[in-house]
Write a structure and sequence with these properties.
This protein has six helices and six strands; from the N terminus they run ββαββαααααββ. The chain is α+β, with helices and mostly antiparallel strands. It folds into two domains: 93 residues, Alpha-Beta Plaits, CATH 3.30.70.330; 88 residues, no CATH class. A four-stranded antiparallel β-sheet has the order 1-2-4-3, covered by helices on one side. Strands 5-6 form a two-stranded antiparallel ribbon.
């Protein structure tokens, strides 16, 4: 018995007309999937029939063998309310098999349009609003630990590694390196006589308090 082509199969579609949809369907980039498969991020109340009707009536795309997957988000807290645990809303994904293949276009070069600057601005805004991840918190803690060690041991005037290597190998220093090493030694002598409080006041960065509400103090460098 010959197989019936996909285009000849009898498929029923819904008759409900939607002119101003209140939902959002996002096509996800899946480089490892085949050209005949597409993945969508859909609302939680979306069914397989809803997605099939939406793709057919909006884009004339026939799809079959729809698979759905609900991803449960991890439990987390916020900086504004620490130790107030909550679980964000889950995300629902659907993978469809299409009649015609679709290949994602190549990503263009976005550097001339300031992609790197835009990403940096977004990360700075997220850190200013308290939305930092574990890596950012770990880096901030490591930097604070280094600052505390410098102030505790008065180790602010760090020697130059290249100069120290030349001195270790008994290589004669240049005039610029001698002047730099002399200035460092003078600064180190001054630091040995300076109290840690004065050293902290000199080395600390200026801070600005963004709010007058004590419960929502946000100190920004």
């Amino acid at each position: 018995m010959d197989a019936v082509p996909i285009t000849k199969k009898l498929i029923a579609f819904g008759s409900k007309k939607i002119y101003l949809p209140k939902f959002t369907v996002a096509l996800m980039r899946t480089p490892r999937a085949s050209p005949y498969h597409a993945r969508f991020l859909v609302p939680l109340d979306f069914s397989k029939y809803d997605l099939r009707d939406y793709l057919f009536h909006a884009y004339s795309v026939k799809c079959f063998n729809i698979r759905s997957y609900v991803k449960q988000m991890p439990v987390r807290d916020t900086r504004e309310q620490p130790r107030h645990w909550f679980r964000p809303e889950s995300k629902k994904y659907m993978t469809v098999e299409m009649e015609q293949p679709f290949v994602w276009p190549e990503v263009p070069d976005l550097e001339p349009w300031g992609q790197k600057e835009k990403r940096q601005e977004t990360e700075d805004a997220m850190r200013a609003n308290g939305a930092v991840d574990s890596n950012d918190a770990r880096d901030a803690a490591r930097k604070l630990q280094d600052q505390v060690k410098k102030l505790l041991y008065k180790n602010v005037a760090q020697p130059d590694e290249a100069i120290e290597q030349k001195k270790k190998n008994k290589i004669e220093l240049s005039s610029e390196e001698k002047d730099a090493e002399k200035l460092r030694q003078e600064r180190e002598a001054k630091l040995s006589k300076m109290s840690r409080l004065k050293l902290w006041e000199r080395e600390r960065t200026e801070k600005l308090v963004n709010s007058n509400d004590r419960s929502r103090f946000a100190i920004k460098a």
